[in-house]
Design brief:
heterodimer, A: about 110 residues, mainly beta, 6-stranded mixed β-sheet, 5-stranded antiparallel β-sheet, globular, B: about 110 residues, 7-stranded mixed β-sheet, 4-stranded antiparallel β-sheet, about 50% strand
Chain lengths: ~110, ~110
């Protein structure tokens, strides 16, 4: 099983739609979780950290389910500017590098 | 605050040439990383460093060397460039472990002919 798995997509949704991505991770000892956004030919940028109780930032909501070892990202009222690849990121332990998923591609269509 | 700065932004090399990519961060971060990303693929970790004077191999280290002589700088070297090393290279830094996120530079686009 891969350390971090994401549905590669693409998810093609109309403007204003709600879309959700899931990501599963294999290391039950993982403690830190993040969602990054990567635009075409650009560097990944932190979208939000994921906290145990779930957290919201405007139209974006992140959830963590430790029992099933998955995290989710919900985007409400999608905008054309949300079109990007969304990377799920999980830590291992100690000072080992974060593990990046391969990403889920989202296209928001007018 | 510049964050993570990569130099150069673009470079074209001939097979067999050598070059060094520079990554500089001004956030006093302990950890630094070098990744490569090929079209349609995810990030692959080349080498990383958890502190000044330390380096470690990542997922795809062959053909690359690194040095971290100063905390703020992480250098990636290609001793004898090969066409398979044509890629976009991203550097990143992180304050520490735990819930600290990584911050990326804007990439170096390297073509080897």
């Amino acid at each position: 099983r891969k350390e971090v798995e994401q549905d590669p997509g693409p998810f093609n949704v109309p403007e204003g739609a709600t879309v959700a991505f899931n990501c599963t991770y294999s290391n039950s000892a993982s403690q830190s979780f993040f969602w990054y956004r990567q635009d075409c030919r650009k560097e990944p940028k932190l979208l939000m950290s994921v906290y145990s109780s779930g957290n919201e930032d405007g139209r974006f909501t992140a959830q963590l389910n430790r029992a099933s070892q998955y995290i989710s990202l919900l985007i409400r009222d999608s905008k054309l500017s949300d079109s990007a690849t969304y990377l799920c990121v999980v830590d291992r332990s100690g000072n080992t590098p974060l593990v990046f998923g391969k990403g889920t591609r989202l296209s928001v269509i007018a | 605050n510049a964050g993570v700065t990569q130099t150069p932004k673009f470079r074209v090399l001939k097979t067999g040439q050598s070059m060094t990519l520079l990554c500089a961060q001004d956030m006093n971060h302990e950890y630094m990383y070098w990744y490569r990303q090929d079209p349609g693929m995810g990030l692959r970790l080349i080498h990383y460093s958890v502190g000044e004077g330390t380096t470690a191999k990542g997922e795809v280290p062959d053909g690359y060397n690194v040095s971290r002589l100063k905390k703020q700088n992480f250098l990636l070297g290609l001793e004898s460039a090969a066409p398979s090393q044509t890629s976009v290279y991203f550097c990143a830094s992180r304050r520490g472990g735990g819930n600290q996120p990584q911050h990326f530079g804007d990439g170096t686009r390297l073509s080897i002919l």
